[in-house]
Amino acid sequence: MTLSILLFTIITFLACSIATHRRYDGYKLVRTIPDMDDDLDSLRILKDMYEGEEVDFWNGIKRLGMPVDIAVSPQMEATLIALLEDFGLRSTIVITDIQALIDDQMRPSLSTRVKRDADSTNEFDYNVYHPLGEINNWVNDIAAEYPNIATKIKIGASYKKRNILALKIGRAFPTGDSKPVAWFQAGIHAREWISPASIIFVTHKLLSGYGSDNEITALLDGLDIYIIPVLNVDGYAYTWTNDRLWRKTRSENSDSMCVGVDANRNYDLHWGDADGADVNPCNETYRGTEATSEEEIKAVTRYMQGVVDSGDTIRLFIDFHSYGQVWMAPWGYTEDPSDDFEDQNNLQADAVEALTAVHGTNYTYGQISQTMYKASGCSVDWAYGALGVLYSYTIELPDTGDFGFTLPPERIESTVTELFEGLKVALNHIL
Fold it and tell me: Nearest Cα to 66, choosing from 326, 344, 345, 262?
């Protein structure tokens, strides 16, 4: 295919996509900070009344003194700010045009894709965001490039019948004995693009460092690491084709026009606890009709259980999210600490210290429900409480709201460089 024909094809595709791709022109990100219990109650009332296509609470209602970020349409901006004022809540504009940031986020991906196709190369650019098809191709390519230490795995299929792919990396023991296992998964919330981008880059650093970096070589000789770049494959694909800020799965809900379930409220441990998930199918934290109602969660929990049943021990579980710069341990469903919280907290403190030492980025750490908010039916609680994974964590990657879900691709490498140091601390601990 000539370059001119390729460019024409891509331009035509983009032109056709504009009609169906939801845009956020003029949408702003409004921030308010509750400092009284009444403020939290007021924000919950606003969320229940107005959350939808024109008002979207990006980072949830957390605790006193913690910012609440609300994306709002031009049509609802004045109303939202007036309501906040009526409740005695001051607000500031953090982002003046969300669509402009989305355009900046996607533009390098498109230009890089044109160049790669035109030159007929297979080089993967780790410093841009990639659509699902390119990520799946990367899984195939990197498994082929490192056949002795990387194996492609199909975890299962999504609601839309897309494959959920993973990698298992590590050098097999000559005796065939099992090794401690780490499990990394990303992209459970579709709009959190820095999550798949980071774990893909981390995987590359691990595999490319084997045999030349003594620490990485020891880790892959002594551990098996399972890596799912994108768990919510339907939702992630939808963020590229229809709505950049889509969060949930894409399953249909009976008796509702609203689509999707929050996959991280769908795990079978304290599923449906009243104050940790939502019963409204139109809300972003909708729990689903029952535990593991989502095909993606059925698949991943079944596969993880199979790893344990085979005799392997999963000692580390990390679910990568954004945004907020937080490293968190169980429990999410209750404010009571887990029986192993001191041990869990000590490790995440050490990991955060190593991470922060790279660029000085400030990550907080603690228990999910104490650090952010209650979350029932979440992956970390299930991994720890049902599967017995002692070191189970959620990591909220950068930033703290200047860009939110629209973190520029220029920030991928710095995010991964510091994250990698924290992950090595955790991996060395279970070695």
Answer: 326
Provide the H-helix boundaries in 22-129.
37-50, 74-86, 98-119
Give the whole-angstrom CA distance, residue 110 versus residue 428: 38
Q: pTM of the full predicted structure?
A: 0.92
Tell me 169's DSSP state.
E
Known catalytic membership, residue 134: no
Distance CA 187, CA 194 (A): 9
Query: SS3 letters for 331-394?
Result: CCCCCCCCCCHHHHHHHHHHHHHHHHHHHCCCCEEEEHHHHCCCCCCCHHHHHHHCCCCCEEEE
pLDDT for residue 114: 56
Instruction: Express the helix, strand and coil content of the chain in percent, nearest 5 each.
Output: 45, 15, 40
- pLDDT for 147 equals 97
Structure tokens of 24?
A: 């956020």
R_g of the chain, CA atoms, integer Å: 21
Measured between alpha carbons, how far is 155 from 325 in angstroms, rounded to an integer? Answer: 28
Distances (CA, A) of 49 to 54, 56, 181: 12, 11, 44
* Catalytic one of 284, 294, 396, 418: 396
* Residue ranges in the chain whose pLDDT is less than 70: 1-19, 109-122
Q: Tokens 């981390």 belong to which residue?
A: 202
Residue type, 228: I
CB atoms within 10 A of CB 322: 26
Q: Do 253 and 259 contact (CB within 8 A), yes or no?
A: yes
Tokens of 310: 């085979």
DSSP letter at 265 equals G
Q: Which two tokens stand for residue 343?
A: 């041990």
* Nearest-5° Cα angle at 285, 341 to 192: 80
Angle, vertex CA 247, rays to CA 241 and CA 251, nearest 5: 80
Per-residue DSSP letter, 416: H
Q: Is 26 helix (H, G, I), strand (E, B) or coil?
A: coil
Q: Quick one: CA torsion of 332, 336, 340, 342, rounded to 10 degrees?
A: 100
d(Cα 35, Cα 265) in Å, to the nearest integer? 27
